[in-house]
Amino acid sequence: MNRKAARAQTTTMAEQADIHELYEAAVQNVEHEVEFLQKTFGELRGRRAFRYREDFCGTASASCQWVRQGKKYSAVGVDIDPEVLEWGRKHRQSKLSEADRARVRLLESDVMVAETEPVDIVVAFNFSYFIFDTRDKMRAYFRRAYEALVDDGIFFLDAFGGPEAHQEQSEKTKHDDFTYIWDQAKFNPVTHRIRCHIHFKFRDGSRIKKAFTYDWRLWTLPELRELLSEAGFRKVTVYWEGEDEDGEGDGEFSPTEKGDADLAWIAYIVAEK
Predict the structure, then answer these.
(1) CA-to-CA distance for 212 and 197, rounded, in angstroms?
(2) How many CB atoms sit inside 10 A of residue 65's CB?
(3) Whether 81 contacts 55, CB under 8 Å
(4) For residues 180 and 128, what is the distance between their CA atoms, to the nearest angstrom?
(5) pTM for the full model?
(6) Is the CB of residue 270 less than 8 Å from the CB of residue 254?
(7) Phi/psi at 235 (nearest 5 deg)?
(8) Do the strands 207-217 and 193-202 form a parallel or antiparallel pair, or are they unpaired?
(9) What would you report as the CA-atom Rg of the chain, rounded to the nearest whole angstrom?
(10) In angstroms, rounded to a whole number, what is the distance separating the alpha carbons of residues 57 and 60?
(11) What's the pLDDT tens digit per position in 203-254?
């Protein structure tokens, strides 16, 4: 056995894994996101959206997916973390064609000060904007998103909740090569501060503990709708997920004023300028 083969046998799956690849496989579906954005924007505005801004973009996988729609589409991803942006440039933006790659701009900046050209759509997904933990901070961020849009632009967010969101518990989801573990480690019902971790476990028994950690305020839908209206958005609508024949989420989201009292839910919020 050569040295390379011997070394491979002694290296655990956790040591070989890339946490960003794991995160995208477990959490994101950028093809579905772009489809939802374009479908919803078209229904509300009667036209296509071409210019896209992804706040808290991380690896910018969604921005890269956006420009794959065609040569008229452009994207800017904003994130304060230079390391994750560099990963995105190397592993996502570089995989695009030369023409598509040129239409993705990755900006290392705080979303509160980032300056970009007006866009049709601003998104803040994966609950990252929950980092703003007071009404004043959140309203100020929403106002920044408002100002980043063209006159008929739309701001898209996601949110989660339900009684299980208030519990200190973990949830495991099995994938082909790993298990994704969402760990709600701490929750304070007085302040709604929540501390969550993402762990990964592999078939060989190895683990990556606290691959990602989030310290957020768990906001409610009424609070978020009120703050978006206060920031200037003229209409704010919740899009709720439908159910399949087994009572599980079917991935299809529709506008509603009445959601189901599920133990756990994820919804989109669509704020029209």
Answers:
(1) 6
(2) 23
(3) no
(4) 19
(5) 0.93
(6) no
(7) -150, 130
(8) antiparallel
(9) 20
(10) 5
(11) 999 999 999 999 999 999 999 999 999 999 999 999 999 877 776 777 889 9
